[in-house]
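User: Teach me something about this protein's shape.
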Amino acid sequence: MNSPSYYNQLLDITHSRNILVTGGAGYIGSHTVHRLAQRGYDVTVVDDLSRGYRHNVDAARLRELNLADTPALEKLLAEKPFSAVIHFAAYIAVGESMVKPELHFSNNLGGSLSLLSAMTRAGVRRLVFSSTAAVYGTPETSPVTEQMPHAPVSPYGESKVMVERILGWFDGIHQLRSIALRYFNASGADPASGLGEEHDPETHLIPLLLRAVLTGQPITLFGTDYDTPDGTCIRDYVHVADLAEAHVLALEALLAGSASDAFNVGTGRGHSVREVIRAVEEVTGRAVPVRVGPRREGDPPVLVACSDKLRRALGWKPRYEDLREIVATAWEFEKSRRPG
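Assistant: First, the predicted structure itself:
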């Protein structure tokens, strides 16, 4: 396994440090842009700000642009020699995709096709793709490995499967190399950057619990009768800074000549909803107001990653493995948004 310093040395010799990041004003995208800048990359961000935030990105980096505008993408890619693209831009709300599948297919699939078309014409042949554990649907066993079949149970998951399949064709036909990162439950905030999670509407558990603590408004616990030790769903919570590092490692592997591949990104540790509630209460010192509701359609009982392949191939290792530490970073961010 080659070290990151080896990849950086090779990059300095053979490639420009210009990287295009789509969706870079969003949650994981903005954290990755921050990490890339720390590593000395020249980052350009494309975001239409429909679900990202202008304040997440240095104004000098941002190009406000919708991915459906293929000619504008081609023009942008021709402005300087981009070595690679990291592609985050997508709608991610599973529940929304069950109500408006056309929205997710149009944006996630159509935007990706537009981007790939522009990349091909511009001669940019490396892509890191933001995929998801939702491609596996409801796995029969846990932890989940990359060899498990794709069986999405939502249009959101299906849209990611479709893009991964398209990437395979672009590799074979256009020699466009890609690495898909299938991550599990992104969580936390990066204290060094001041960035955090601020989806609108918010659908992720940890920020919803923290907001329940701050507002006193109860959060709904969806289902307490799953076949798990305490009856609630179990998930693998991976810190957003560790996700950002995985994207940088994938980028540097592609720049060093790696073949196309796909990797799970998770800690390999599962925590139930009740365990997350307890962690929030321990970190905040306050009770979480909770009401019990019925199960949500499509929620698997257990979803935990096996990330051994990523650890072996790219040398990735999460820095945040303790759930309370992850919650603490999110808590600091939530408090910073509500001064006083």
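Now, about its shape. Residues 4-186+237-265 form a domain with the Rossmann fold fold (CATH 3.40.50.720). The radius of gyration is 19 Å. If you'd like, I can walk through any region in more detail.
User: That's plenty for now, thanks!
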